[in-house]
Each structure stands twice: as C-alpha cells, then as structure tokens.
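Record minuted for completeness.

…
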Amino acid sequence: TEEAVLIDTAGRYTTQDSNAGSDSKSWLAFLSLLKKYRTRQPINGVILAISLADLISLDDQQLDAHVVEIRSRLREIHETLKIQFPVYLLFTKADLVAGFMDYFGSFEEPRRRKVWGATFQTTDRNKNMAGEAPAEFDALANRLADEMADRLQEEADPVARISIFGFPAQFYALKGRIAGFVTSLFDPVRRQVNVSLRGLYFSSGTQEGTPIDQVLGAIGRSFGNNSRPHLSGTGKSFFLHDLLTDVIFAESEWVSYDRATERRAAVLRYCGFGIIALITAIALGTLGMSFMANRSLIASTTQAMSQYRVTADALLKTTTVTDVDLENVIGPLDQLRNMPAGFETSDLPTPIAETVGLGQRERLLSASTTAYRQALERMLRSRLLIQAERTVQATMADPAALY
C-alpha cells in the first residue's frame, strides 16, 4: 500500500514441515535480507495470523507443536534482526464460528472496516501483556451480548435470529482455547525471546467453508445429525481495514532499533560532526590567517607609501624639471619599487597565507606598479630628456661626437 509494505511469508516458513532444512535456510536468508537492506528497523511488527478453524480442530499435542514452531520463528526473528518488535495476534476465518455471518453479514462497509479485537493499553514496550488476554476476550464477548438485542431487532429472518442469539455463546466457547494458546505462546518463562503481544484481533477475509458449531454441534452429532451449512465463498472483508491503517500502520514506531546499529550510527554521526567541526576550524583558521596576513600587507604597504611621499615630497611638488640630478630621484624610485607589494615583487608567487579568497596583493601590486611607472615618467624620464638635450647642444660643433 502507500502507507506500508506487507510481506506475507509462506506458511511453510513457520511450520517447516515440508523440508525442514530447505525451509529453515530460506527463512533465515529472508531475515538476513531484511537486516541487510533495513539495518535500523528491519520490520515494524509481526502479524501472527492463525485460523480459528485450526485452533479449534487441532488437538492439544498438535497445538503445542504449533506453538513451539511459532515461538522458534519469533526467536529467530529477534536473534537475527536484533530488535524488540510488537506481535499482533490475528485470528482469521472468524466466519467459521457458527452465527458469524448472521450476526455481521448485513453490516455495511464502514462497520465492516472497524477493529474487532483489543489493543493492550500500555506505554511499556517491554511489559508482557499476555495475561490481559482473557479479560480482553471477555470484554469482546460481553460487547457481542450487549449488542445482540439490537441485532435481533434488525433481523427479520427467524432462522438467522436464532444464529444471532447463539453467536455470543459460540464466540465465548473459544475462550479456553484462545487463552491457552496465548499463554503458551507468550509465557515469559517458555518463550525465550523478548517480544511483546500488542493485541489480539479477529477477522474474516473470504467466507468459505463449513462453520463450526461448538455449542450445539456435539449435541447434534450425538443424535446422528452431522449436517452443517456450507459458506459459498463470498468476498466480503470483515474487521481488517482499520486494524491495518489505524492500529498496525499507526504504530510503526513501536518497534525498537538495533542497538548495535544505533551505536555504530551514533559513532559515525559524532565522527561526522567532529570532521565537520575540524574542517570548520581549519577553514576559519585559514581565513583568519589570510585576513591577518593581508591586513599586515596593506599596513606595511600604506606605511611604505607614506615614507615614499615624505621622501619624494619636494620632487612631487615640482611642476617644472630643470635639473638633471639623477641621484636625487634614485632613492625615492627605489623606495617605490621595493615596496612590500611593489614592482620588484611582481614576478614572485603570492604567499599561501595571503590567498584563500582574501588576497589583496594583486590590487596593491597593480596600484604600486602604476605609481612606479608614473614616477619613472615624471622623475626619471624628464631628467634623462633634459640631459640628452644638453649633451646634444654641447656637441653641436663636433659632428663626430654628436653622432
């Protein structure tokens, strides 16, 4: 469905009476696949379905053997999946209890969707609630008896009314068998597995077979009357829809987690957090180091530029160049050239500490280079031109020296 995945295992996996070795191997392989692909919660619960016809017809020895097999399968589920899971005990083929179809058959679909059973009211997932089963069964039987008068009023067929009248007694006759089955299966001493009975329920999927009359059947057989009505196989569903959607699916978180898997997940989670914290610390440390390195570079460049302006103040204020004293400009030019991010460092790689996205060296280098070239143009080139002009003028009378 859109709400859950129901896996209906073959009945032979439970009884393993056809080929014990092969069935057991297939069953354990199936559980291993669940564990492999759903590590935290391989299952959300177990619906243990048993036919009321089998429960009534099996003798005590056969029923005990059946209980032993079911208990073994529950133990294998627990040991393989390493989780504590709820068990929803579903008694099917309730239509084979004499009077069932007469009592419930006229119900419209909304009434047939309801839950017929009991979910144990407890918040302790580890508490063994199997001892509450007889009291819950009595409550269901009493409810049938309380509603019987209304059903008799609704039914016009006198034969059907007799069946409706007798149905609560037919149902109550199952108490001993059901209580014994529940006690044997979930006995805390014998079960040897930590699973909890979450509730017990009754349902009918298809109505087919011969109803079992536990009250009048023995009397009829003693008089030689063994004839019993046979259900035709109608396709109505009784008491399944809400059980699945409102109880079992809604309690998907009732199951525990595999503790070993949870521990591994916690370790991995904390390791992941640690790695993230370490990477964050490294990133922040690197950014901080880059910030400090670039701030230092900017400060030293600013200081060097201030010193350059002081040294070259007279040269920068001169609007007309008349001297050819190159030694006077070499100092300020060298000072500008050798700044921390000056023209002299243009071919050097950028230090790693100044990178990581905060690097300012390229901008400072661009500005310093521009300033250096402008200074060459303004201070050095003009004086070289004046010196060249004076040299030419001094050698005008000597063509050989001129050329």
Q: What stands out?
A: Confidence is low (pLDDT under 50) at residues 218-228.
